[in-house]
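Take a protein:
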Amino acid sequence: MAGSSRASSRSRRSTPRGSRARSTSAGSAGTRKRKFFDYPRSGYTGLHRWLPSWRFMLGSFLSGVFLVAGAVVAAYATIDVPKPGEDVQAQTTTVYYADGSTVLGTFAVQKREIVELDTLPEWVGNAVVAAEDRTFYDNKGVSLTGMARAFLNNVRGGDKQGGSTLTQQYVERYYVDKTTTDYVGKFREVLLAVKITNQESKPEILGRYLNTIYFGRDSYGIQAAAQSYFGVDAKDLTISQAAMLAAIIPSPNNWDPAVRPQQAQARWQIVIDRMLEDGHITKKQHDEAAFPETVEYVRSSKYEGPDGHLLKMVEDEMAGEAINISKEKLDRGGYKVVTTIQKPVQDQLLTSVGRLLKGELTDGETPPSPNLKIAASSVDPATGGVVALYGGPDFLTDQINWATYGDGVQAGSTFKPFTLVAALQSGISLDKRYSGRSPMTLDGWGDGDKQVTNFGGTSYGTMDLVDATADSVNTVYAQLNLEVGADKTAAVANAAGVTTPVQDNPANVLGSATVHPLDMASAYATFAAQGVHHDAHVVAKVLNANGSVNYETDGNPERRFEQDVMADATYAMTQVVERGSGEPYIKPLGVPVAGKTGTSTGNISAWFVGYTPTLATSVALSQVGDDGRSWNSITPFGPSPWGGKLVEVTGASIPAHLWADYMGPVLQMEQFAKERDFPPRADVGDKPTQRPTTTPSPTPTPTTAPTTEPTQDATAKVPYRLQGKTQGDATAALLAVGLEPVIVTKPSDDVAAGRVISVDPAAGTRLPVGSQVTLVVSSGPKPQPTKKPDPKPDPTPTQTPAPTEAPPAQEEEGGGDGGGA
């Protein structure tokens, strides 16, 4: 009965669930045919009818496992270990000038010396094992956990990881001879790593790895690295030195202690700690270890001379995000790199800089200080390509490229055009007039009652923005920046091509920011291209070793400013050359040039940046202290552009002279002579002369009042070149244009008696007819006290010797903010 009860119970449990309907008829069971592929499953109802059985799932899984295993086994059996990649197979990368045929330089594997593992202290290999693959001595060439971790990271969108063991890295560099990033290639490397692990011993693998890996500083292998970093042979490496070399393997150029000491030391600490944890060193050795000092990196002679800066720029740009060819790949890849540097232009730049340094541009008078730093760069407005660049005389002796130096050089008045563009964009016309008096206290300029002064303290009358640009009047541009907004000036500078930070403060118009000379050439190239910006670059094209194109750029053109705004800004900047501070050296070239001089407060820097429709060039001078870091005022040298002794170096003097000497021959070259003329002035914005009924401008009025009540058009301009003239000639010149001279005498050791020392308001200032203009006339040298002074007064002589002309105040403009540079 018990058996019958259990059977009945099973029947009761199964029947209500409806999951199975077993036939009780033996005859019907014998007549049903079984399906070859029983799906949907017969004998089941509901969801179970559509779910595969566990037997099917298990069988499918095991079949898949056997198939994959079979494929792996087959691949493993058929894969052949390739011949080791020899150093002779590494191809030299050649860098060319823009013509694609003249060689600028080369990149190749520079240093390698094979050493045997048994000649090295055991901690050398163990340091690398601790840094790169802690399971090296136990694994079979691969790490499943490492690959799984890297795969999950990659599919989640993290920074791409490889999960490679030391053996896989060895395979990649010793056999495959290239970096593998795709999963198929990684799978092949895994099979090779397993096969090589079965064919080669661990010491053999480790020894070959140490002789193959790249350690930075152009060093391949542990022996070259020991020499480059510590000046010792690999057999003499200490535990600390070995740990440091092992620590920087993943990114040697970035983690070189000479480049990033903090990151290098942090990595070194990790390796030292791992060596202790894994039993490679004792606790005493660990505690006694200290971060090692490295020797100075002596670069290859390929970087020698001024062209070394160009090759370093190529190297850095190749490793950047756009091209992504590392230094190691560059040294071994056999690429053909075509730069934007035009050799005839580069040669002319080096010639002109050499003439300046030799004193040939300054008639051999006072030579420049040895601490003088010269930076010059030319950019093609049509592409953004760097046509020529000078960053220093020798990269090996001074690795700072002063054209691209990180901290930059104070911009001075070369920043004023950015405020001018911002004003034009906001609807302010070139005809709008402002007071040019100096000093001037402006609300909102700074904390307290901060004053703005013009260069040399020169005071002007009311003037439009064209005259203010030509004469570089600080007080006018200070008012303009407050009206437009300092944030707009900063935005225009960045949009034009300035990559360094520009602070949002009113003084930015006077060049308080530090900028790269290359950036300023790039920004003015945007103006030359009528508002279309191209990224400044030195690499135009990269070809692979097989001739295929790896990379090519057109500079990523993008319109940043409207053409009519650029036309008006360019017109105003041409007046700097036609009648302003750039006239003495630039105008004689006989080519339309738009540009701007710049001199920072205290003459810390001096600039001339100018452009034609086909080329933009910046020249910047600065001077460091004996420590090589602090900024000093530029030591005066060479004559003044207006004759006589030069008191201080300004943008209108040496920089403009160097620009003209260099660009004169260049602008005669066919590729730069094809287009000369700028677009005509567009006259954007509101013009005050068209709206006489509007409220008068709130800007300060001239300090001198007109003798009559003139109309707006009844004006006269103070004549140029009155300085140095006789009192009679200067008086006649003022009366001829309707202005009233006022004579003030003053002793002078430099200007002959009876001749004009200075004019106030300055030359070029437009005043109402009848306005007074002060002529400061020399009364002769200051009296020298003696024991028996001559009782007779020294009358004003009627005959005077030839003058030593002083530079007109309005033509030697200043860049700083009058004390806040």
The two ends are 111 Å apart (CA to CA). The chain is about 35% helix and 15% strand.
